[in-house]
Amino acid sequence: MRNQDCLDIFEKYLREEKKASANTLSSYMRDIRQLASYLEEYTDVDILTATDEDLNAYISYLKESGKSVATVSRSIASIKNLYSYLGIHQYIKQSPATKLTTEKSDQKLPQILSSQEVDLLLDQPKCIDAKGYRDKAMLELLYATGMRVTELIEMNVEDVNLTASVVRCHSRNKERYVPIYSAAVKALDDYIHLVRPQMLADPGDPTLFVNVGGERMSRQGFWKIIKHYQKKANIDKDITPHTLRHSFAAHLLENGADIHDVQEMLGHADLSSTQVYSQLIKKQLKDTYKRSHPRA
Questions:
Q1: Residue 204: Cβ within 10 Å count
Q2: Alpha carbons within 13 A on the beta-carbon side of 220
Q3: How many domains does the chain fold into?
Q4: Residue 73 phi/psi, 5° resolution?
Q5: Are 156 and 196 a contacting pair, CB within 8 Å?
Q6: Within a domain: residue 172?
Q7: Which residue of 41, 75, 263, 282 has the smallest Cβ count within 10 Å?
Q8: C-beta atoms surrounding 110 within 10 Å
Q9: 235-271: pLDDT as tens digits
Q10: Cβ contacts of residue 238 below 8 Å, gap of 6+?
Q11: Domain range spanning residue 8?
């Protein structure tokens, strides 16, 4: 049974059996259509064959896309209802959605690096071989733009405008342009002109960042790169690719950037997603006050 068939029978069930309101029906079906679109575009499975790992990856994708906690929680509820229906009517043997859990609105604030820790991390890749040039360019670009790791690895060389010091980020059907600082421009320039042509398996491949095999870098591959340099830098914090995105946003706001500008650069659809970083800065100020004021 195709994804569209699943959508049709679930919509009929909501309308005729559950007697769902128009708003509820619209919300549920929007969430399920988004899931179906994600599976079709990014995986080799469909609704009936998706595993719990596929669904967890989709939820991570929603979070990285800047969706609010409320939106993600609603999507999880919709997905659980879909698979509960499919299980009861024996379209599947077992629901892959049972392990999906919703987050509380008072979610833990993201961990960020200090400016000194960012400098230390970015200083780790040494431009003495192709891998060093590539890793330097990737880390500098990630911190320069705050882009999502998916956006980073999906970039093509034409998304970089070194003359204008700007890059184009793609997120689903949307795109945005983010400026980059001079050190990132130089790192990209060196990589693109000195290293990338040698690393490509196919000279006509538009991929910006490639692995040692000459093909597009994977999320897992970049995760290993981050962990490697975290260890080299002796930074105790648990650094992930998203840590640099968090740090980018917090450091901009800390230094006086307008929150709406930061929202645009991050590609957040909802301002509340960006306001998390303002809360983080306020918490840090309170911690500093309590730690430093003689009467605190």
A1: 5
A2: 1
A3: 2
A4: -65, -40
A5: no
A6: yes
A7: 41
A8: 17
A9: 998 888 888 998 998 898 888 888 888 888 988 877 7
A10: 111
A11: 3-88
CB 209 within 8 A of CB 75: no
Of 46-50, 134-138, 173-177, the least confident: 173-177
Q: Encode pLDDT of 156-210 as tens digits.
A: 999 999 999 999 998 766 889 999 999 999 999 999 999 999 999 999 999 999 9
Do 122 and 209 sit in the same domain of this protein? Answer: yes
CATH of the domain at 8: 1.10.150.130
Q: What is the 3-state secondary structure (H, E, C) of the chain?
A: CCHHHHHHHHHHHHHHHCCCCHHHHHHHHHHHHHHHHHHHHHCCCCCCCCCHHHHHHHHHHHHHCCCCHHHHHHHHHHHHHHHHHHHHCCCCCCCCCCCCCCCCCCCCCCCCCCHHHHHHHHCCCCCCCHHHHHHHHHHHHHHHHCCCHHHHHCCEHHHEECCCCEEEEEECCEEEEEECCHHHHHHHHHHHHHHHHHHCCCCCCCECCECCCCCECCHHHHHHHHHHHHHHHCCCCCCCHHHHHHHHHHHHHHCCCCHHHHHHHHCCCCHHHHHHHHHHHHHHHHHHHHHHCCCC
| Cα 112 to Cα 245: distance, rounded to the nearest angstrom | 9
Examine residue 57 and state whether it is found in any structural domain, yes or no: yes
217 with 209: CB under 8 angstroms?
Answer: yes
Cα distance between residue 141 and residue 187, in whole Å: 8
Q: Is the pTM of this model over 0.85?
A: no
